């Protein structure tokens, strides 16, 4: 396996699970959000706010395409699946969808300043993100791992078991 891709909403555990999976598989972790932040010397939230969502998604699309040329566990930003080009690139790859409930995802991100989550009603906004993106995560995923109430090690074990049975 050359690449293993992680997708899911904000707070699903892509960074945490990605680090552990990469270690378990003796692969590099490639975090597309981290690449964007390094290139711009700003957080993704700052870039998103300054340039707007369409331009941010365009940058994200380019970074994801580059990352998929490498080898490793590749953690995508939560909204990367919004791009049809990105979804096309994921079509023949092993993609793990880290799923989380709205309540748990909101709890995990409540101290973040992610512009995509800023709203008068954060719970409604997070639920809307899940509703909008769930069909896209489902479209690209070869395996869905629910992260609610499970330790990172338990989730990694579940994913490794899935990979062994491929």
Automatic annotation (TrEMBL):
Compartments where located: Cytoplasm
An individual GO BP term: chorismate biosynthetic process
GO molecular function: ATP binding; magnesium ion binding; shikimate kinase activity
Reactions it catalyzes: shikimate + ATP = 3-phosphoshikimate + ADP + H(+)
Record keywords, A-Z: Amino-acid biosynthesis, Aromatic amino acid biosynthesis, ATP-binding, Cytoplasm, Kinase, Magnesium, Metal-binding, Nucleotide-binding, Transferase
Signal sequence range: none
Protein name from the UniProt record: Shikimate kinase
Organism annotation: Corynebacterium kalinowskii
Gene (name only): aroK
